[in-house]
Amino acid sequence: MEAPLENRIGRLFIQRGQKLVLAESCTGGLLGHLITNVPGSSEYFLGGITAYSYEAKQSLLGVKPETLIQFGAVSRETVLEMAQGVRRLFSDQVAEERLVGVAVSGIAGPGGAQPGKPVGLVWIGLSAVEGNWAAAFYGQGSREENKAFSARCALEALHAYLEGKLTLGKSGE
């Protein structure tokens, strides 16, 4: 039987000598919870920020106000800035080139849908020394199910990155 995804991610981080930092919004810390369920996760997980409001995204993660105004919190542009921002935030502890930042922002529901942004929409962003990546996913469940779906999508994207199966672009791409 294959080890849980969280365990495989941990082993890959240790092998690669990299550290993980998180910027969560709609998951409210669930992604960090899943990561820290793994014994020994302190070897590669530095911490995370739950930045739920626009103000927190701006002041803690450095998301530009114009990004939030133009694209909204649930957007490719915002999760890329969140992922880059959380790497910068933790770079006083570990060299930024060793940090992998993952960001999650979505609409868990049951309310909050907007034109073109249905309940269940989540954007996952990843920032690493090689570049940046973001993608949208769509959950179909209750609020709790959409949060769990969002965290799982982030873990799968992180695993794909660590295995070299995620194509990263340069800053802002």
TrEMBL record:
Residues 4-161 form the CinA C-terminal domain. It holds the Pfam family CinA. This is CinA family protein. NCBIfam families: PncC_domain. InterPro entries: CinA-like_C, CinA_C. Coiled coil: none annotated.
